[in-house]
Design a protein that fits this description.
The protein is built from 11 helices and 20 strands. The longest helix is centred in the middle third of the chain and has 18 residues. 31% of the residues lie in helices and 21% in strands. Strand 19 and strand 20 form a beta hairpin. Helix 2 crosses helix 6 and helix 3 packs parallel to helix 5. A 10-stranded mixed sheet has the order 9-7-5-2-10-1-11-15-19-20, sandwiched between helices. Strands 14, 16, 17 and 18 form a 4-stranded mixed sheet that branches. It is globular. The chain is an alpha/beta fold and 424 residues long. It binds inosinic acid. Inosinic acid (IMP) binds next to helix 4. The site of inosinic acid (IMP) has 20 residues, from helix 4.
Length: 424
C-alpha cells in the first residue's frame, strides 16, 4: 500500500495537525518524518485544544499507531512534557507510540548552541524557535550525533559527555553571553531520557516496509512548511530539514515509487513567523485583522505571526516541488468580512513580470502583482456542507484550483475537527 503524505505548502502553521487528526480515521499508522519540537501541531476537539510538538497527530485515536521516524530530532525533555500531558488526558500512548532508533537526540547543549549562534548573528538572526534543531541536524550531517538507538548502548553516557564537552567549547567560541547551568539542564535531560527509554524503539524503515506489505494505510505527517525547506525554502531563513515530499522518503525510508496521495495544506492567506522575506506581507489594518481574527501566534513560541495576502507564485512552486495531488484550504473563515481580497498572481522582477519563484524574493527584488476578488461577509464557522459556502468564496476557490491545476478537497472553517467541509 502506498504511503500518503500531508505537507504544509507555506511557511508552516497551515493547520496540519487538525487535518491529520481529521484524516486519522482513514489510516492505521501516522508517521512524523522530519523536524522536531520546533513544530506545534494544534488539534481541537470536544471543546479542548491540544498542542503536539514531536508526537504524531494521530495519538488521540485509539486505533492508530504513531511513529516518530528516523528523520525527526527528539528533545527528551520536551517529549516527556508531551507524554505527561497525554497521561493527564488518559491517553494510553504506550502501545500506540513507536520511535525510530535512527532518530537523532537533541542535547541540552544543542539548545544552547542554537541560542549562541542566533545571538551572534544579531540582526541577521534566523528567528529560530531555539529548540536546538539546527545544531542537532548539523551534528547529524557532520556524523557526530547521538541517536535513539545509542541510548541502548552501555557507553552512551561517555559519548554524550564527549559531544557535550565539544559543544561547550563551541559555545565559548561565540561572541554571545549565554548564561546556563549545565548540571541543572542535564539532571532534567537524564531523567527524561529514562522516560524515553521506557518507550518502544524500533527499526522503523523495516516496520514501515512490512506495514506496507501487509496493506496497512500510512499517512506521513509533515512539519513546518515547504518554504522553510532547507533546499527549496527561503534560505538561510529556513529550518534544517527537508520539509518537502522528498523528506518523507529519507525520513521514513519509503521508496519514491511508494508515495501515493500528496495532500498540500495552505491557509487562505499567508503567515510567517521568524525572519526572512515575505513578498505579500501586510503592514496595515488588513494584516492586523488577519492576525487578530486568525489568532496568529506561534503554537510553540507564542510569537506573533506576520500576515499577508495569499501568494500564488509561492504556492504553485510548493505544489510543483511536492507533486501535490489534493489541496486543503485552511482558515477561509478568517477572511469573512473583507470587502476585497487580493491574491498575488505574479511578481515584478528585474523589470519583468514572472510567474515562478526566483532565487531572490527580498522586497528589493520582487514586487507582488495582485488580482482582486470580491470578499464575502457570511460567517463560515457554523457551516458543514460545501453547498452552504458563499458564491464569492466558491469563486475564490475555483480560481485557485484552476491556477494550481489541483482540486481543493477540504475547506476548513474553524479549528475544531467538526469545522471541516469536504468537497468532492
Ligand atoms: P528552527 O527550525 O527552530 O531553527 O527555526 C527556523 C525558522 O523556521 C524560523 O523562522 C522559525 O520561526 C521557523 N519555524 C520552525 N518551525 C516552525 C513551525 O513549526 N511553524 C512555523 N515556523 C517554524
Amino acid at each position: 500500500m502506498a504511503v500518503d503524505l500531508l505537507l504544509g505548502l507555506q511557511w508552516g502553521d497551515e493547520g496540519k495537525g487538525k487535518i491529520v487528526d481529521v484524516l486519522t480515521n482513514n489510516y492505521n499508522i501516522i508517521a512524523r518524518f522530519q523536524g522536531g519540537p520546533n513544530a506545534g501541531h494544534t488539534l481541537v476537539f470536544n471543546g479542548k485544544k491540544h498542542v503536539l510538538h514531536t508526537i504524531p497527530s494521530g495519538i488521540f485515536h485509539d486505533d492508530a499507531t504513531n511513529l516518530v521516524g528516523n528523520g525527526v530530532v527528539i528533545d527528551p525533555v520536551i517529549f516527556k512534557k508531551e507524554l505527561d500531558k497525554l497521561e493527564e488526558q488518559d491517553v494510553d500512548y504506550r502501545k500506540s507510540l513507536l520511535i525510530s532508533r535512527k532518530a537523532h537526540i537533541i542535547l541540552p547543549t544543542h539548545r544552547l548552541l542554537d541560542a549562541a549562534s542566533e545571538a551572534a548573528k544579531g540582526k541577521a538572526k534566523i528567528g529560530s524557535t531555539l529548540k536546538g534543531i539546527g545544531p542537532t541536524y548539523m551534528d547529524k550531517t557532520g556524523r557526530n550525533g547521538i541517536r535513539v538507538g545509542d541510548l541502548e548502548l552501555s557507553d552512551w553516557k561517555e559519548r554524550y559527555r564527549a559531544l557535550a564537552d565539544k559543544h561547550e567549547s563551541m559555545i565559548a567560541y561565540y561572541d554571545a553571553k549565554i548564561e546556563y547551568d549545565l548540571n541543572e539542564l542535564e539532571a532534567d535531560f537524564f531523567a527524561a531520557v529514562d522516560v524515553l527509554k521506557s518507550l518502544t524503539f524500533i527499526d522503523s524503515e523495516e516496520y514501515v516496509y512490512q506495514a506496507q506489505k501487509a496493506n496497512k494505510t500510512i499517512l506521513a505527517e509533515g512539519a513546518q512548511g515547504s518554504l522553510l525547506d532547507i533546499d527549496f525554502g527561503t534560505y538561510p531563513f529556513v529550518t534544517s530539514s527537508n520539509t518537502t515530499a522528498a523528506g518523507a522518503c529519507t525520513g521514513l525510508g519509503v521508496a519514491p515509487n511508494q508515495i501515493g496521495e500528496v495532500f498540500g495544506i495552505f491557509k487562505a492567506y499567508t503567515t510567517r513567523v521568524g525572519s526572512g522575506p515575505f513578498p505579500t506581507e501586510l503592514f496595515d489594518d488588513d494584516g492586523a485583522t488577519m492576525a487578530k481574527v486568525g489568532h496568529e501566534f506561534g503554537a510553540t513560541t507564542g510569537r506573533p505571526r506576520r500576515c499577508g495576502w495569499l501568494d500564488l507564485v509561492a504556492l504553485k512552486y510548493a505544489c510543483q516541488v511536492n507533486g501535490v495531488t489534493q489541496l486543503m484550504m485552511m482558515k477561509g473563515d478568517v477572511l469573512s468580512g473583507f470587502e476585497t481580497l487580493k491574491v498575488c498572481t505574479a511578481y515584478k522582477y528585474k523589470g519583468e513580470t514572472i510567474k515562478h519563484l526566483p532565487y531572490n524574493i527580498e522586497p528589493e527584488n520582487v514586487t507582488p502583482i495582485y488580482t482582486d476578488f470580491k470578499g464575502w461577509s457570511e460567517d463560515l464557522t457554523g457551516m458543514s456542507e460545501a453547498s452552504q459556502l458563499p458564491d464569492a468564496l466558491n469563486a475564490y476557490i475555483q480560481f485557485l484550483e484552476k491556477e494550481l491545476e489541483t482540486p481543493i478537497t477540504i475547506v476548513s472553517v474553524g479549528p475544531d475537527r467538526k469545522q471541516t467541509i469536504f468537497r468532492s
